[in-house]
Structure formats: C-alpha cells, structure tokens
Description:
The complex is a heterodimer of chains A (223) and B (249). Chain A is an all-alpha fold and 223 residues long. Chain A has one domain (2-221). Helices cover 83% and strands 0% of the residues of chain A. Chain A has nine helices and no strands. The radius of gyration of chain A is 18 Å and the shape is elongated. The relative contact order of chain A is 0.15. The mean pLDDT of chain A is 89. Chain B has 249 residues and is mostly helical. Chain B has a single domain (23-248), classed as Four Helix Bundle (Hemerythrin (Met), subunit A). Chain B contains eight helices and no strands. Chain B has helices spanning 2-12, 15-47, 61-88, 91-123, 131-152, 156-184, 203-235, 240-248. Chain B starts with a helix and ends with a helix. The interface between A and B is medium-sized, with 27 and 26 residues.
Amino acid sequence: MFNAFSHLLIRDLRLALRARHELANPLIFFVLVVSLFPLAVTPTPELLQEMAPGVIWVSALLAVLLSLDRLFKQDYDDGSLDQLMLSPNPLVLLVLAKVLAHWLLTGLPLVLISPMLAVFMNVPADTIPIIVLSLLLGTPVLSLIGAIGVSLTVAVNRGGVLLSLIVLPLYIPILIFGANAIDVAADGLSVKGQMYFLAAVLALSLSLAPVATAVALRITASR
Amino acid sequence: MFSKIWKWIQTFSSPKYFYGTAGKLIPWFAAGALALTVWGLYLGLFVAPPDYQQGESYRIIYVHVPAAWMSLFIYVAMAVSASVGLIWQIRLADVIASASAPIGAAFAFIALVTGSLWGKPMWGAYWVWDARLTSELILLFLYFGYMALQSAIEDQRTADKASGLLAIVGVVNVPIIHYSVEWWNTLHQGATVTKFDKPSIDTSMLIPLLLMALAFKLFYAALVLVRARNEVLYRDRNRRWVRELIQKL
C-alpha cells in the first residue's frame, strides 16, 4: 500500500523534472506578481513594508491556483487517472501522494524563494522567518483544498476561471491568518495563535480534503 | 418501521407525486408568508418604538437580519439535501439543492445591500470591511461557485453530484471562514438575538423580527417548491407523466 504511495510520488516528481521549464513557471509568476506592486504604487519603504504580507500571500495564492491544473489534468487527459482509480490501493492514499508531489513541486519552491521577495518588499530581517513559517504551514493547505476543486472541474472545458471561482473563497481563512501572522510579527508581537490556527487548518484539511478529492474524482470519472 | 419510512420517502420523492403535492402546498406557504410579512412589518415599522441610539434607521433590521439568517439557513439546507442526494441517491434532494442556490444567493445579496444601506448612517460609509459583512460576501461567492459548477457540467447527474460535493465542502468551511473573519476584524454591533437566555433586544422589537424571520422561511418554502416543480417538470420532460399532464391542459 505504501509502496503504491511512494511509487506514485516518485513518478510524479520524475515526470515534473523532465519538463523543467514548466516547473519554474509558478515560481517566476510569483516573483513577477510581487514585483508588480512596487511598480503600481509609489515605492516608499514604509508603504511597501505595510503592504508586504498581503502582497506576498495573495501572490502565493494565485501562483498555487494557476499551477493546480497540473495536479490531475494530464493524468485525466491520457487516461492514467482512470487506471489509478481501478487500482486496488485506496484512492485516498494515491490522492495524498499526488498532492504531496504537487506541493513539493510548487508550494515548497514558493516557500524557499519568499525571503528574497521579503527583501524586495522592505520587510525587516527578523520578520522573514515568520513569512517562511506561515507559507510552510499554509501552502500545503492550498494544494489540499485545490485538489478538491481540480478534481471537480478537470473534465470541464475551459475550467480555469471556474476553478478559481470555486477554490478562492475556500482559501480565505489561510490568507487571513497567513498575512496576519506576518503583520503581527512586524509589530513585534507573538504569532503563536496564528501559527496554531494555520497548523490546525493543515491538520483538518490533511485528514478531510483527500477523502473529498477521492469522492470528487469518482464523480468526475462516472460521466 | 424503518422500511415503512423508506417506502414513504420513495413515494414522496417520486417526481410525479412531488409535483402534485408541492402544487397543493405552495398557496398555503405563500399565503402564510404574505400574512406574516404584513403583520411583522406593521409591528416593526409602526408599533415598535424607535431605538434610543439609532433612532428610526434601525428599522431596516426587519429585512436585513432575517435575510442574513436565511442566506445561512439556505446554504445549510442546500448542503443537507445535497448530501441526502449523494448518499441515498434521491434525485428529488438534488433538485431541491439546486433550486435553493439562487434563492440563497438572492438573500445574501439582500443582506449585503440592506447592510450597506444601514452602514451609511451608522458607520458613515456604505462599505466597511467588517467581519460579518465580509463573511456574508464570502457566502455569496460560495453560492456563485456552486451555481457556476452546476451550470458548467452538461450531464445533469454528474452536475448534481459534483456541485453537491462542493456544497458539503463549503458547509464545512463556512464556520471556519466565519470565525477567521470574526477574529480578523470586527466593527459590527454584537449579536442581539442569539443569546438565548436574555436577548439584548427589547421584546417589542424582537417579536416583529421573529415574525419576519418566520415569514422569510415560509417565503423560501413556497419559492423553492415553485422552482423545484419547474425543475422536475423540465428534467422529466420526456417522461409519460409529464406528457399526460400537458395533454390535460
């Protein structure tokens, strides 16, 4: 059973590494969107610093959203998704492997590059670990919830806008607490509460989202 | 006992039976809604005293609060009936869920509009990023997502199941969204009715509010039956009972 998990995980990683240009796209998108904001306003250090948590988090949200397609689209198109569903292994576990692969390929790079963007946005150095930590706890949730949305819309033609319409409202709690943690940390206050909330949502979505995704995939496949 | 209930459910949920029964129920619900609205509005707008702080402008509460309650109530009702549809494969439940969505969205919209009209004299601005206004807005987005998914999938059965699952995911998220927004920012006056032991609202103002809430519930019941009847008729347009119905006209 766990063999299937690791096989699927390795397969997804290997497939992604063979199309490296695609791998970099969400990351470049993230950096690009963040750097648009200083261009759109008068980039005084104070203003940038004040905007930083929101800008970084919204950009991360959009970068993950645009990369969600990769989660199931290709497998759906070439039929390997059907094969996964026919396999005797529990679908929930396979979904979890795919989501983990997706996070390793998109969420983790965003986390790793975020210190650089923090410097772009004039965030003080001692706040940077909080940015990294909040993204580290928040981005897996984005992949997990996103998986539900993708599995519902993967068979819909031009489902891109529809996907964001479904998924973005569900992302709001993460956005609020992720950005708020950075905000509060910049004022020198404790961010324990925000981090616990993010961790709690991560635990909740880790246990429920794969189940919902598995059900959604079966619905999609039944047509 | 259980099989009896099951049998009853199956008879009631057959489209033909539902079409007839719902048709008989609608006038009653509609009449009840109308009577309670007139009564509630009379008590609320003419009999209840003006508020000591907000003067006459608080009276929008008689539309605003019941609409906001309904928008949440309908979302939960939608999720419950969608899960009944998913679990027991009762198609009528799916019909009710999809018929409810636009009504719920409309109530959320009414709550937002009346809320911002109320906000202008009280807070000095039409829109404030206050916790409960924001979560009402997000609820409206959740409705939009549901309706968009429902209409994007061509196959009726799949559309029902997929959007039903989305409604269930949404209903799990509603409390999380609500509380995260609440902790994030609040300017809204505290709840005046939810404290069961002793509401901070005066009885003369509370009674019309509850009457209006009941009126809105009945209105929803009438409206959802009208919409569900239409939907059933449309979905079964090629069935014999619909043809016979048309021939009778």
